[in-house]
């Protein structure tokens, strides 16, 4: 276990060279969220931070941008406007990111975009479940598109469900057949698919690091923002305020996520980390790994991308 105290002191002690970093953040626009807390840690602990932030509402993020510039006046923070729910839009935004980077290489890619599928499977115009398109397929697509502009020791950090891998419905990876979709199945499925995709990427890019982390419970407002009707009211007025009293604060979790991007421990390979930063291989993941599922999931990703993007 990595104690938060240890995390904070390692972050504060980063030396000048280690702390010159260029990062892309997707899913860091909610000021109460984990992504934004990570971005704050990045701005505070990096001597010359360069961050490109992707989000769907520039005006609502303006206070966030102003705060980052206050934290570190030497930093360069650029906001690019994009809704990342469609793979085709991700292709376009990645080209914008590349021109924004110019000759600079990308050191850190933080992926925390998403919501929870309380309303079940909802298909988007590309034929994918809307929630899983954002929190799984989109994250893999960003990684695939940006890998060519990453520095040799770059790290990709996906904040979702590392160590929470579960049994997949192997014959319906998109959960498109009637009766197969549920909140639990969707979470189990994409947690496994994310770690297995990272296994494949780490094998193909041995100089880089791919970290899939479960952040633990954080009262970020994600429950209410993912729900509608009575469920939204219940989450916003009862559940989230109560949770806020007991669960981890976004600030500390953001410090942790930044630590995974800089600590020498996580320099290479594929990592599934729990909320305390412990690397675990749950039984079901062990079986999938032994059964060659990293390659199979990667093939599945490619076939989805081919079907959707070439249309
Ligand atoms: N909070 C927890 O307890 C917890 C526990 C386990 C796992 N997680 C996972 O951790 C990740 C971050 O969660 P969080 O609690 O920090 O929630 P959050 O702040 O609501 O993070 C979600 C982010 O994704 C962005 N986003 C969603 N759909 C988008 C779209 N179509 N285009 C562009 N941006 C989009 C949101 O942007 P807007 O500001 O525009 O809405 C927001 O910045 C999520 O994947 C979540 O499932 C959270």
What are the main properties of this structure?
single chain, 311 residues, alpha/beta, Rossmann fold, 7-stranded parallel sheet, globular, binds NADP nicotinamide-adenine-dinucleotide phosphate, Sec_Metab_Biosynth_Oxidored, NAD(P)-binding protein
Question: How would you describe what is shown here?
Answer:
- This protein is 48% helix and 14% strand.
- It contains 11 helices and 7 strands.
- The longest helix has 22 residues.
- The protein is globular.
- The mean pLDDT is 95.
Largest sheet: 7 strands, parallel
Looking at the structure, what is the overall shape?
globular
What's the CATH class, please? Alpha Beta
The strand line-up of the biggest sheet is: 3-2-1-4-5-6-7
CATH architecture: 3-Layer(aba) Sandwich
Count of extended strands: 7
SSE topology string: HEHEHEHEHEHEHHHEHH
Broad structural category:
alpha/beta
Q: Mean pLDDT score, rounded?
A: 95
- CATH homologous superfamily caption: NAD(P)-binding Rossmann-like Domain
Strand content: 5-15%
Weakly predicted, low-confidence segments: none
> Into how many domains do the coordinates divide?
1
Q: What percentage of residues falls in helices of 4 or more residues?
A: 40-55%
Separation, N- and C-terminal Cα atoms: 46 Å
- CATH topological fold name: Rossmann fold
Protein name: NAD(P)-binding protein
GO molecular function, one term: oxidoreductase activity
Keywords: Oxidoreductase
Task: Characterize this entry briefly.
By secondary structure, the protein is an alpha/beta fold. Helices cover 48% and strands 14% of the residues.
């Amino acid at each position: 276990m990595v104690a938060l105290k240890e995390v904070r002191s390692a972050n504060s002690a980063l030396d000048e060279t280690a702390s010159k970093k260029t990062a892309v953040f997707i899913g860091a626009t909610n000021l109460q969220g984990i992504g934004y807390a990570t971005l704050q840690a990045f701005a505070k602990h990096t001597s010359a931070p360069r961050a490109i932030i992707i989000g769907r509402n520039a005006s609502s993020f303006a206070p966030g941008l102003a705060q980052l510039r206050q934290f570190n006046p030497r930093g360069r923070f650029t906001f690019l406007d994009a809704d990342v729910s469609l793979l085709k839009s991700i292709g376009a935004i990645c080209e914008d990111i590349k021109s924004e980077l110019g000759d600079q290489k990308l050191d850190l890619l933080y992926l925390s975009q998403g919501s929870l599928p309380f309303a079940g499977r909802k298909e988007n115009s590309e034929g994918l479940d809307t929630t899983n398109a954002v929190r799984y397929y989109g994250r893999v697509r960003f990684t695939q598109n940006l890998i060519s502009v990453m520095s040799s020791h770059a790290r990709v950090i996906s904040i979702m469900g590392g160590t929470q891998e579960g049994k997949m419905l192997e014959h319906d990876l998109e959960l498109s057949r009637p009766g197969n979709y549920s909140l639990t199945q969707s979470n189990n499925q994409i947690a496994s698919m994310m770690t297995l995709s990272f296994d494949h990427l780490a094998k193909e890019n041995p100089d880089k690091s791919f970290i899939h982390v479960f952040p633990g419970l954080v009262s970020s407002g994600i429950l209410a923002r993912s729900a509608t009707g009575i469920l939204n009211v219940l989450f916003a007025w009862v559940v989230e305020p109560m949770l806020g009293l007991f669960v981890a604060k976004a600030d500390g979790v953001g410090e942790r996520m930044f630590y995974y991007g800089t600590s020498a421990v996580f320099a290479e390979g594929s990592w599934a980390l729990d909320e305390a930063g412990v690397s675990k291989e749950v039984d079901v993941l062990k079986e999938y790994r032994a059964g060659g599922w990293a390659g199979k999931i990667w093939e599945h990703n490619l076939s989805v991308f081919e079907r959707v993007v070439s249309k």
